[in-house]
Specification:
binds cobalt (II) ion, 16 helices, two-stranded parallel sheet, globular, binds D-xylulose, 14 strands, about 450 residues, alpha/beta, Xyl_isomerase-like_TIM-brl, eight-stranded parallel beta sheet
Protein backbone atom coordinates (compact mmCIF):
# COMPACT_ATOMS: atom_id res chain seq x y z
CA UNK A 1 0.00 0.00 0.00
CA UNK A 2 1.28 3.45 -0.89
CA UNK A 3 0.83 6.52 1.24
CA UNK A 4 -1.67 8.07 -1.14
CA UNK A 5 -3.87 4.98 -0.87
CA UNK A 6 -4.24 5.38 2.89
CA UNK A 7 -7.48 7.23 3.63
CA UNK A 8 -7.91 10.05 6.11
CA UNK A 9 -8.44 8.41 9.48
CA UNK A 10 -11.78 9.35 10.97
CA UNK A 11 -13.59 8.71 14.21
CA UNK A 12 -16.05 5.85 13.72
CA UNK A 13 -16.72 4.95 17.35
CA UNK A 14 -16.14 1.87 19.51
CA UNK A 15 -18.42 -0.29 17.35
CA UNK A 16 -16.31 0.10 14.21
CA UNK A 17 -14.25 -2.79 12.93
CA UNK A 18 -12.50 -0.68 10.32
CA UNK A 19 -8.80 -0.90 11.29
CA UNK A 20 -8.14 2.50 9.71
CA UNK A 21 -10.50 4.42 11.98
CA UNK A 22 -10.45 5.88 15.48
CA UNK A 23 -12.61 4.03 17.96
CA UNK A 24 -12.20 6.46 20.88
CA UNK A 25 -10.28 9.51 19.65
CA UNK A 26 -12.97 11.95 18.66
CA UNK A 27 -10.99 15.18 18.23
CA UNK A 28 -13.88 17.59 18.75
CA UNK A 29 -15.51 15.79 21.70
CA UNK A 30 -15.60 17.98 24.77
CA UNK A 31 -14.27 16.67 28.07
CA UNK A 32 -14.68 19.12 30.94
CA UNK A 33 -15.30 21.90 28.43
CA UNK A 34 -12.13 21.29 26.38
CA UNK A 35 -11.84 19.23 23.20
CA UNK A 36 -9.94 15.95 23.12
CA UNK A 37 -7.63 17.59 20.57
CA UNK A 38 -6.71 20.35 23.02
CA UNK A 39 -6.37 18.00 25.98
CA UNK A 40 -4.13 15.51 24.22
CA UNK A 41 -2.02 17.69 21.88
CA UNK A 42 -0.67 14.71 19.95
CA UNK A 43 2.68 15.00 18.21
CA UNK A 44 4.41 12.78 15.65
CA UNK A 45 8.05 11.86 16.25
CA UNK A 46 9.96 12.47 13.03
CA UNK A 47 12.77 10.04 13.88
CA UNK A 48 10.67 6.95 14.44
CA UNK A 49 8.05 7.68 11.83
CA UNK A 50 10.14 8.92 8.92
CA UNK A 51 13.56 7.45 9.67
CA UNK A 52 13.61 4.28 11.82
CA UNK A 53 13.57 1.30 9.47
CA UNK A 54 13.47 -1.60 11.92
CA UNK A 55 17.23 -2.07 12.18
CA UNK A 56 18.15 -3.82 15.44
CA UNK A 57 21.27 -5.36 16.98
CA UNK A 58 20.73 -8.59 15.07
CA UNK A 59 19.26 -7.54 11.79
CA UNK A 60 18.95 -4.97 9.07
CA UNK A 61 16.00 -2.75 8.36
CA UNK A 62 12.67 -4.29 7.47
CA UNK A 63 10.85 -1.10 6.52
CA UNK A 64 11.13 1.13 3.52
CA UNK A 65 11.28 4.73 4.72
CA UNK A 66 12.30 6.27 1.40
CA UNK A 67 8.77 7.44 0.52
CA UNK A 68 9.38 7.39 -3.23
CA UNK A 69 12.42 7.58 -5.45
CA UNK A 70 15.30 9.94 -4.79
CA UNK A 71 18.34 10.94 -6.85
CA UNK A 72 20.22 12.41 -3.92
CA UNK A 73 20.29 12.46 -0.14
CA UNK A 74 18.57 15.84 -0.17
CA UNK A 75 15.78 14.44 -2.35
CA UNK A 76 15.33 11.56 0.08
CA UNK A 77 14.84 13.99 2.97
CA UNK A 78 12.48 16.10 0.89
CA UNK A 79 10.42 12.97 0.27
CA UNK A 80 10.41 12.33 4.00
CA UNK A 81 9.22 15.88 4.67
CA UNK A 82 6.31 15.54 2.25
CA UNK A 83 5.44 12.14 3.71
CA UNK A 84 5.61 13.54 7.27
CA UNK A 85 2.91 16.10 6.55
CA UNK A 86 0.75 13.66 4.63
CA UNK A 87 0.93 11.25 7.59
CA UNK A 88 0.07 14.00 10.12
CA UNK A 89 -2.74 15.19 7.91
CA UNK A 90 -4.22 11.71 7.54
CA UNK A 91 -3.95 11.03 11.26
CA UNK A 92 -5.19 14.51 12.20
CA UNK A 93 -2.09 15.10 14.35
CA UNK A 94 -1.36 18.79 14.88
CA UNK A 95 2.26 18.73 16.08
CA UNK A 96 5.59 17.13 15.33
CA UNK A 97 8.99 16.84 17.05
CA UNK A 98 12.40 16.32 15.48
CA UNK A 99 16.15 16.10 15.97
CA UNK A 100 18.28 18.17 13.59
CA UNK A 101 19.66 15.01 11.98
CA UNK A 102 16.21 13.49 11.38
CA UNK A 103 15.15 16.15 8.93
CA UNK A 104 18.24 16.69 6.73
CA UNK A 105 21.28 14.65 5.68
CA UNK A 106 24.62 15.17 7.40
CA UNK A 107 27.28 17.07 5.47
CA UNK A 108 31.05 16.68 5.66
CA UNK A 109 31.34 19.74 7.93
CA UNK A 110 28.99 21.44 10.33
CA UNK A 111 28.70 24.24 7.76
CA UNK A 112 27.51 21.74 5.15
CA UNK A 113 25.06 20.19 7.67
CA UNK A 114 23.66 23.64 8.37
CA UNK A 115 23.21 24.39 4.65
CA UNK A 116 21.27 21.15 4.23
CA UNK A 117 19.17 22.07 7.23
CA UNK A 118 18.40 25.52 5.86
CA UNK A 119 17.06 24.09 2.62
CA UNK A 120 14.85 21.54 4.38
CA UNK A 121 13.70 24.01 7.04
CA UNK A 122 12.29 26.32 4.38
CA UNK A 123 10.43 23.34 2.91
CA UNK A 124 9.11 22.38 6.37
CA UNK A 125 8.00 25.95 6.94
CA UNK A 126 6.04 25.91 3.71
CA UNK A 127 4.50 22.50 4.50
CA UNK A 128 3.57 23.66 8.01
CA UNK A 129 1.72 26.59 6.52
CA UNK A 130 0.05 24.48 3.86
CA UNK A 131 -1.12 21.75 6.26
CA UNK A 132 -1.58 23.95 9.34
CA UNK A 133 0.80 21.95 11.55
CA UNK A 134 2.99 23.10 14.45
CA UNK A 135 6.35 22.21 15.93
CA UNK A 136 6.01 20.95 19.51
CA UNK A 137 9.75 20.82 20.10
CA UNK A 138 13.08 20.54 18.42
CA UNK A 139 16.34 19.02 19.62
CA UNK A 140 19.87 18.23 18.51
CA UNK A 141 21.08 14.69 17.94
CA UNK A 142 24.41 14.79 19.79
CA UNK A 143 24.71 11.05 20.29
CA UNK A 144 24.64 9.18 16.98
CA UNK A 145 27.86 10.33 15.32
CA UNK A 146 31.11 8.57 16.38
CA UNK A 147 32.51 11.95 17.53
CA UNK A 148 30.14 11.66 20.49
CA UNK A 149 31.57 8.34 21.70
CA UNK A 150 32.58 10.00 25.00
CA UNK A 151 29.47 12.17 25.21
CA UNK A 152 28.72 15.68 23.92
CA UNK A 153 28.75 18.35 26.68
CA UNK A 154 30.27 15.68 28.96
CA UNK A 155 32.95 14.59 26.50
CA UNK A 156 36.55 14.56 27.72
CA UNK A 157 37.43 16.43 24.50
CA UNK A 158 36.79 20.18 24.39
CA UNK A 159 36.51 20.18 20.57
CA UNK A 160 33.57 17.81 20.88
CA UNK A 161 31.93 20.12 23.42
CA UNK A 162 32.37 22.98 20.92
CA UNK A 163 30.90 20.92 18.08
CA UNK A 164 27.90 19.97 20.21
CA UNK A 165 27.42 23.63 21.14
CA UNK A 166 27.39 24.53 17.44
CA UNK A 167 24.80 21.85 16.78
CA UNK A 168 22.63 23.04 19.67
CA UNK A 169 22.87 26.65 18.45
CA UNK A 170 21.64 25.67 15.00
CA UNK A 171 18.90 23.41 16.40
CA UNK A 172 17.69 26.34 18.53
CA UNK A 173 17.80 28.62 15.47
CA UNK A 174 15.60 26.28 13.46
CA UNK A 175 13.25 25.63 16.37
CA UNK A 176 12.72 29.39 16.62
CA UNK A 177 12.41 29.71 12.83
CA UNK A 178 9.65 27.09 12.82
CA UNK A 179 7.85 28.62 15.82
CA UNK A 180 8.52 25.63 18.10
CA UNK A 181 6.97 25.83 21.56
CA UNK A 182 9.69 23.74 23.20
CA UNK A 183 13.32 22.70 23.05
CA UNK A 184 14.41 19.32 24.47
CA UNK A 185 17.67 18.09 25.90
CA UNK A 186 17.74 14.35 26.17
CA UNK A 187 21.22 13.52 27.42
CA UNK A 188 22.14 11.12 24.59
CA UNK A 189 25.54 9.90 25.73
CA UNK A 190 25.80 12.26 28.73
CA UNK A 191 26.81 9.61 31.23
CA UNK A 192 29.60 7.14 31.75
CA UNK A 193 30.63 3.51 31.61
CA UNK A 194 33.31 3.44 34.32
CA UNK A 195 34.38 5.87 37.03
CA UNK A 196 37.96 4.66 36.47
CA UNK A 197 38.28 7.02 33.50
CA UNK A 198 35.71 9.67 34.47
CA UNK A 199 35.92 13.14 36.00
CA UNK A 200 32.28 13.20 37.06
CA UNK A 201 32.49 16.65 38.59
CA UNK A 202 33.84 18.31 35.44
CA UNK A 203 31.40 16.44 33.24
CA UNK A 204 28.39 17.62 35.27
CA UNK A 205 29.71 21.19 35.44
CA UNK A 206 30.18 21.15 31.67
CA UNK A 207 26.73 19.74 31.06
CA UNK A 208 25.30 22.65 33.07
CA UNK A 209 27.52 25.09 31.13
CA UNK A 210 26.04 24.00 27.80
CA UNK A 211 22.49 24.27 29.14
CA UNK A 212 23.18 27.76 30.49
CA UNK A 213 24.64 28.85 27.12
CA UNK A 214 21.60 27.43 25.32
CA UNK A 215 19.14 29.29 27.55
CA UNK A 216 21.03 32.57 27.23
CA UNK A 217 21.31 32.25 23.46
CA UNK A 218 17.71 31.18 22.87
CA UNK A 219 16.19 33.84 25.12
CA UNK A 220 18.34 36.53 23.45
CA UNK A 221 17.05 35.33 20.08
CA UNK A 222 13.36 35.47 20.87
CA UNK A 223 12.63 31.92 22.05
CA UNK A 224 9.68 32.16 24.43
CA UNK A 225 8.86 28.45 24.66
CA UNK A 226 9.89 25.92 27.30
CA UNK A 227 13.18 24.12 27.74
CA UNK A 228 12.87 20.51 28.78
CA UNK A 229 15.20 17.87 30.09
CA UNK A 230 14.11 14.34 29.32
CA UNK A 231 15.26 11.97 32.10
CA UNK A 232 16.49 8.48 31.28
CA UNK A 233 18.50 6.24 33.64
CA UNK A 234 20.52 4.14 31.22
CA UNK A 235 21.03 3.37 27.53
CA UNK A 236 23.13 4.16 25.66
CA UNK A 237 25.49 4.72 28.61
CA UNK A 238 25.43 2.49 31.66
CA UNK A 239 24.74 5.44 33.91
CA UNK A 240 23.02 8.44 32.35
CA UNK A 241 23.36 11.62 34.42
CA UNK A 242 19.71 12.60 33.81
CA UNK A 243 18.66 9.43 35.65
CA UNK A 244 15.10 10.34 36.63
CA UNK A 245 12.93 13.34 37.51
CA UNK A 246 14.39 13.58 41.02
CA UNK A 247 18.01 13.46 39.85
CA UNK A 248 17.35 16.03 37.12
CA UNK A 249 15.65 18.43 39.52
CA UNK A 250 18.57 18.16 41.96
CA UNK A 251 20.98 18.86 39.10
CA UNK A 252 18.97 21.86 37.86
CA UNK A 253 18.78 23.33 41.37
CA UNK A 254 22.48 22.89 42.01
CA UNK A 255 23.32 24.88 38.89
CA UNK A 256 20.54 27.45 39.26
CA UNK A 257 18.81 26.22 36.10
CA UNK A 258 15.54 25.17 37.72
CA UNK A 259 13.69 28.32 36.64
CA UNK A 260 14.58 27.69 33.01
CA UNK A 261 13.76 24.02 32.61
CA UNK A 262 10.76 21.74 32.88
CA UNK A 263 10.73 18.00 32.31
CA UNK A 264 9.76 15.90 29.33
CA UNK A 265 8.67 12.63 30.91
CA UNK A 266 8.87 9.45 28.83
CA UNK A 267 6.96 6.36 29.94
CA UNK A 268 9.62 3.84 28.93
CA UNK A 269 12.36 5.88 30.60
CA UNK A 270 10.35 5.94 33.83
CA UNK A 271 10.08 2.16 33.93
CA UNK A 272 13.78 1.74 33.07
CA UNK A 273 14.47 3.86 36.18
CA UNK A 274 12.36 1.48 38.27
CA UNK A 275 9.46 3.92 38.51
CA UNK A 276 5.99 3.96 37.12
CA UNK A 277 5.15 6.48 34.41
CA UNK A 278 2.70 8.14 36.83
CA UNK A 279 5.39 8.41 39.53
CA UNK A 280 7.63 10.46 37.25
CA UNK A 281 4.74 12.66 36.16
CA UNK A 282 3.68 13.19 39.77
CA UNK A 283 7.23 14.05 40.79
CA UNK A 284 7.47 16.61 38.00
CA UNK A 285 4.05 18.05 38.75
CA UNK A 286 4.45 18.58 42.49
CA UNK A 287 7.78 20.30 41.81
CA UNK A 288 6.26 22.67 39.26
CA UNK A 289 8.29 21.04 36.51
CA UNK A 290 5.63 19.21 34.50
CA UNK A 291 6.22 20.14 30.89
CA UNK A 292 5.71 17.59 28.16
CA UNK A 293 5.38 13.85 27.60
CA UNK A 294 7.02 11.27 25.37
CA UNK A 295 4.19 8.80 25.03
CA UNK A 296 5.21 5.19 24.62
CA UNK A 297 5.56 2.03 26.68
CA UNK A 298 8.25 -0.49 27.45
CA UNK A 299 8.08 -4.24 27.84
CA UNK A 300 8.42 -5.34 31.44
CA UNK A 301 10.18 -8.53 30.35
CA UNK A 302 12.85 -6.65 28.40
CA UNK A 303 15.40 -4.41 30.03
CA UNK A 304 15.75 -1.77 27.36
CA UNK A 305 13.96 1.14 25.73
CA UNK A 306 11.60 -0.66 23.36
CA UNK A 307 9.66 2.51 22.50
CA UNK A 308 6.41 0.70 21.83
CA UNK A 309 3.22 2.47 20.97
CA UNK A 310 1.23 2.83 24.21
CA UNK A 311 -1.73 0.46 24.48
CA UNK A 312 -1.83 -0.17 28.24
CA UNK A 313 -4.91 1.80 29.19
CA UNK A 314 -4.24 1.66 32.94
CA UNK A 315 -1.02 3.56 32.21
CA UNK A 316 -2.57 6.09 29.86
CA UNK A 317 -5.43 6.70 32.33
CA UNK A 318 -3.10 7.34 35.26
CA UNK A 319 -0.95 9.53 33.00
CA UNK A 320 -3.90 11.64 31.91
CA UNK A 321 -5.04 11.86 35.54
CA UNK A 322 -1.71 13.58 36.29
CA UNK A 323 -2.08 15.80 33.23
CA UNK A 324 -5.55 16.89 34.35
CA UNK A 325 -4.23 17.55 37.86
CA UNK A 326 -1.46 19.67 36.34
CA UNK A 327 -4.14 21.77 34.64
CA UNK A 328 -3.32 20.36 31.19
CA UNK A 329 -0.49 21.10 28.82
CA UNK A 330 0.72 24.62 28.16
CA UNK A 331 3.65 24.45 25.73
CA UNK A 332 3.97 20.68 25.94
CA UNK A 333 2.02 17.80 24.45
CA UNK A 334 1.96 14.05 23.90
CA UNK A 335 4.76 13.13 21.54
CA UNK A 336 4.64 9.53 20.34
CA UNK A 337 8.29 8.63 20.88
CA UNK A 338 7.26 5.20 19.67
CA UNK A 339 7.88 2.91 16.74
CA UNK A 340 6.07 -0.02 15.17
CA UNK A 341 7.72 -3.38 15.94
CA UNK A 342 10.34 -4.59 13.48
CA UNK A 343 7.93 -7.19 12.17
CA UNK A 344 5.13 -4.62 11.73
CA UNK A 345 6.89 -3.47 8.62
CA UNK A 346 4.25 -2.12 6.27
CA UNK A 347 3.33 1.48 5.67
CA UNK A 348 -0.15 0.67 6.93
CA UNK A 349 1.42 -0.38 10.24
CA UNK A 350 2.52 3.22 10.85
CA UNK A 351 -1.13 4.22 10.79
CA UNK A 352 -2.35 1.23 12.79
CA UNK A 353 0.28 1.99 15.44
CA UNK A 354 -0.65 5.65 15.76
CA UNK A 355 -4.33 4.78 15.85
CA UNK A 356 -3.63 2.30 18.68
CA UNK A 357 -1.66 4.93 20.61
CA UNK A 358 -4.11 7.78 20.03
CA UNK A 359 -7.13 5.65 20.92
CA UNK A 360 -5.37 4.42 24.07
CA UNK A 361 -4.71 8.00 25.15
CA UNK A 362 -8.26 9.05 24.28
CA UNK A 363 -9.46 6.23 26.53
CA UNK A 364 -6.96 7.34 29.15
CA UNK A 365 -8.38 10.87 29.05
CA UNK A 366 -11.98 9.65 29.26
CA UNK A 367 -11.12 7.44 32.24
CA UNK A 368 -9.08 10.14 33.97
CA UNK A 369 -12.02 12.54 33.72
CA UNK A 370 -14.28 9.78 35.11
CA UNK A 371 -11.90 9.18 38.02
CA UNK A 372 -12.11 12.88 38.86
CA UNK A 373 -15.88 13.00 38.49
CA UNK A 374 -16.31 9.83 40.55
CA UNK A 375 -14.27 11.43 43.31
CA UNK A 376 -13.69 8.31 45.40
CA UNK A 377 -9.93 8.20 44.88
CA UNK A 378 -9.44 11.90 45.60
CA UNK A 379 -11.70 11.68 48.62
CA UNK A 380 -9.85 8.63 49.95
CA UNK A 381 -6.50 10.40 49.73
CA UNK A 382 -7.92 13.53 51.35
CA UNK A 383 -9.31 11.50 54.23
CA UNK A 384 -6.13 9.47 54.60
CA UNK A 385 -4.22 12.63 55.51
CA UNK A 386 -7.05 14.27 57.50
CA UNK A 387 -4.96 14.20 60.68
CA UNK A 388 -2.94 17.10 59.28
CA UNK A 389 -6.01 19.34 59.07
CA UNK A 390 -6.34 20.01 62.78
CA UNK A 391 -4.68 19.54 66.16
CA UNK A 392 -1.11 18.34 66.27
CA UNK A 393 -1.11 17.63 62.52
CA UNK A 394 -1.98 21.23 61.75
CA UNK A 395 0.78 22.35 64.13
CA UNK A 396 3.24 20.22 62.13
CA UNK A 397 2.31 21.47 58.67
CA UNK A 398 1.90 25.09 59.75
CA UNK A 399 5.39 25.11 61.21
CA UNK A 400 4.22 25.72 64.78
CA UNK A 401 5.46 22.39 66.12
CA UNK A 402 9.04 21.87 67.27
CA UNK A 403 10.93 18.73 68.15
CA UNK A 404 10.39 19.59 71.83
CA UNK A 405 6.65 20.23 71.52
CA UNK A 406 6.20 16.99 69.59
CA UNK A 407 8.22 15.09 72.14
CA UNK A 408 6.01 16.44 74.97
CA UNK A 409 2.90 15.52 72.95
CA UNK A 410 4.20 11.99 72.28
CA UNK A 411 5.10 11.43 75.93
CA UNK A 412 1.51 12.24 76.87
CA UNK A 413 0.11 9.92 74.19
CA UNK A 414 1.49 6.52 75.16
CA UNK A 415 1.53 3.82 72.43
CA UNK A 416 0.63 4.81 68.83
CA UNK A 417 -0.75 2.27 66.40
CA UNK A 418 -1.79 2.89 62.78
CA UNK A 419 -5.56 3.45 62.77
CA UNK A 420 -6.37 3.44 59.10
CA UNK A 421 -6.11 0.88 56.30
CA UNK A 422 -4.34 1.83 53.05
CA UNK A 423 -7.06 -0.12 51.18
CA UNK A 424 -4.94 -0.64 48.07
CA UNK A 425 -6.98 -3.58 46.80
CA UNK A 426 -10.24 -1.70 47.29
CA UNK A 427 -8.89 1.30 45.39
CA UNK A 428 -7.66 -0.89 42.56
CA UNK A 429 -11.14 -2.39 42.32
CA UNK A 430 -12.66 1.12 42.25
CA UNK A 431 -10.37 1.89 39.32
CA UNK A 432 -11.56 -1.26 37.53
CA UNK A 433 -15.16 -0.34 38.20
CA UNK A 434 -14.61 3.16 36.78
CA UNK A 435 -12.78 1.75 33.79
CA UNK A 436 -15.04 -1.10 32.85
CA UNK A 437 -18.45 -0.07 34.18
CA UNK A 438 -21.24 -2.27 32.96
CA UNK A 439 -20.77 -5.15 30.57
C1 LIG B 1 15.82 8.33 23.47
C2 LIG B 1 14.76 9.33 23.38
C3 LIG B 1 15.01 10.46 22.44
C4 LIG B 1 14.51 11.77 22.93
C5 LIG B 1 14.89 12.94 22.06
O1 LIG B 1 15.54 7.31 24.36
O2 LIG B 1 13.75 9.22 24.02
O3 LIG B 1 14.46 10.15 21.21
O4 LIG B 1 13.12 11.77 23.07
O5 LIG B 1 16.25 13.01 21.83
CO1 LIG C 1 12.02 10.37 24.18
Amino acid sequence: MELKQIPKIRYEGPGSKNPLSFKYYDAGRLINGKSMREHLKFAMSYWHTLCADGTDMFGRGTMDKSFGTAESAMDLYKNKAHAAFEIMDKLDIDYFCFHDRDIAPEGATIGACNENLDEIVSLLKELMRQYDKKLLWGTANCFNHPRYAHGAATSCEADVFAYAAAQVKKAIDITIELGGSGYVFWGGREGYETLLNTNMELELDNMARLLRMAVEYARAHGFTGDFYIEPKPKEPTKHQYDFDAAAVLAFLRKYGLDKDFKLNIEANHATLAGHTFAHELRYARINGAFGSIDANQGDMLLGWDTDQFPTNVYETALCMYEVLKAGGFTNGGLNFDAKARRASMTLEDIFLSYIAGMDSFALGLLIAAKIEADGRLDEFVRERYASYKSGIGLDIVSGKATLESLSEYALRMGEVKPLTSGKQEYLESVLNQIMFGNF
